[in-house]
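sry for the spam today, last one i promise. struct tokens for design, 494 residues
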């Protein structure tokens, strides 16, 4: 599909990632013979896109569960209880601290409820579990826990310490201790608590997966003797900072671990979703069996192949908003800037440049690709294409009715501005292993002009700019009026 990379190699094996591109903090739910997974959406709205699989390797999006912006969202938890689906959401609204919200639905495709604030502040990374007492609990970073009401829609007890995690040797090269991402399951007579420590980014050898177990949700917890279960031990490995794991039973009854990691040399793609086989040991613990994930691994047995990914090319005859397209860090009213027209998407202007706009973004998971789009400038608007990390880190080209502009590392290059009368322009952006080339055409793509500046963007990632984000394809609309977006095409080239 458009040359996009695919985990399933078609010969009974797969090669990670199972979901390419910026899909961090995976939370996975086994629901009969179906699997559902969702990820951290950060500042994207609509957000919390739910993906579906029947074999754990091939995944495709179903719907966006969070349709109203509630701020920056980190590390959600998807679960099912008494035939109802829940997503617990840590969110920080602009100017406010973190709080845990919940949305629910009777069907995985929705409709999903509006967010309900549990009013448990200062927490991220929820993990849901039902205790031996039949009560519901959320574990959070720290590692702390609090009880939920039976309906799961309110807190029903204090936030309290739950577990003091295993510590790695002091001479290991990690970012910081940072116990986070608690995920729990009940297996046999034990509760198992899977946790991340070591820091989420930083040095490649930081993040790791550890485990503990207890016969009570209230402890005491004993450390797994095999800790850490997963860790990058060398910067030469293909996947860095591996962590934030969940355990899931495969279609044939074997067990797997789902977590995220940065791809060596491509932190710009964000943290991608990885799948590793595991085994239960005779002493009631478990081990990871995938090594450094550099080689293909046998696919889970027993599952039927399902759809993998989706086409990014868009003629705008269908509404892909919320699955493919989202606005970055929108205000509550910003969804009103978007409307579908026949074969086009209209995006009203906001701000004076990409630096204060809320651009339309599309997540790509390939290391090299070509993307093209036609922009019509309406009522004096300025518009263009970007590789966008955040408002302080982006590159791109833009057009006003009178000029072409060039943006490098969030600044307009005044010396590159050229007089150019434009009402409609087709723009081609080529990202070839973090080297960016632009072309533009004023005759619908019949002839192309090479832009005079190439850019190298491998440093535009979290370890430089913070935020744990990725470099996305973006389209901005600024100044006044709006732009009409037509005929977006995407093709991976490596």
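last one done:
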């Amino acid at each position: 599909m458009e040359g996009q990379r695919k985990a399933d190699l078609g010969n009974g094996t797969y090669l990670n990632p199972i979901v390419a591109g910026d899909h961090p903090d995976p939370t996975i739910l086994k629901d009969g013979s179906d699997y559902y997974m969702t990820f951290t959406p950060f500042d994207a709205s609509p957000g919390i896109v739910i993906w579906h699989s029947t074999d754990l390797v091939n995944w495709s999006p179903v719907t966006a569960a969070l349709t109203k912006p509630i701020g920056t969202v980190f590390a959600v938890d998807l679960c099912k209880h008494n035939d109802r689906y829940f997503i617990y959401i840590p969110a920080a609204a602009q100017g406010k601290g973190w709080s845990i919200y919940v949305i629910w639905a009777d069907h995985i495709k929705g409709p999903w409820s509006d967010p309900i604030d549990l009013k448990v502040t200062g927490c991220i990374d929820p993990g849901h579990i039902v205790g031996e007492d039949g009560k519901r609990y959320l574990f959070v970073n720290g590692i702390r826990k609090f009880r939920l009401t039976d309906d799961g829609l309110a807190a029903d007890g204090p936030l309290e310490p739950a577990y003091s995690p295993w510590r790695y040797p002091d001479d290991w090269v990690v970012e910081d201790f940072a116990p986070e991402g608690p995920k729990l399951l009940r297996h046999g007579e034990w509760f198992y608590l899977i946790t991340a420590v070591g820091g989420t980014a930083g040095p490649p050898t930081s993040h790791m997966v550890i485990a503990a177990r207890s016969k009570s949700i209230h402890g005491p917890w004993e450390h797994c003797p095999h800790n850490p279960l997963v860790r990058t031990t060398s910067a030469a490995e293909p996947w860095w900072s591996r962590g934030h794991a969940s355990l899931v039973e495969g279609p044939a009854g074997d067990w797997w671990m789902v977590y995220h990691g940065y791809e060596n040399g491509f932190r710009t793609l964000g943290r991608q979703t990885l799948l590793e086989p595991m085994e239960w040991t005779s002493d009631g613990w478990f081990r990871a069996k995938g090594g450094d994930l550099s080689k293909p691994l046998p696919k889970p047995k027993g599952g039927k192949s399902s759809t993998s990914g989706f086409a990014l090319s868009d003629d705008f005859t269908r509404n892909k908003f919320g699955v493919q397209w989202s606005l970055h860090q929108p205000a509550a009213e910003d969804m009103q800037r978007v409307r579908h027209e026949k074969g086009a998407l209209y995006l009203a202007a906001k701000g004076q440049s990409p630096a204060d706009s809320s651009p339309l973004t599309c997540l790509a998971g390939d290391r090299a690709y070509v993307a093209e789009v036609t922009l019509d400038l309406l009522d004096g608007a300025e518009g263009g294409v970007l590789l966008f990390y955040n408002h302080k880190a982006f590159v791109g080209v833009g057009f006003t009715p009178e000029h072409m502009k060039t943006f490098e590392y969030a600044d307009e290059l005044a010396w590159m501005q050229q007089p150019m009368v434009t009402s409609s322009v087709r723009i081609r952006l080529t990202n070839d292993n973090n080297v960016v080339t632009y072309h533009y055409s004023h005759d619908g793509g019949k002839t192309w002009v090479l832009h005079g500046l190439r850019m190298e963007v491998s440093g535009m990632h979290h370890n430089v700019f913070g935020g744990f984000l990725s470099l996305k394809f973006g389209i901005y609309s600024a100044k006044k009026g709006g732009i009409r977006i037509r005929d977006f095409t995407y093709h991976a080239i490596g």
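The chain has a mean pLDDT of 96. ok im logging off now
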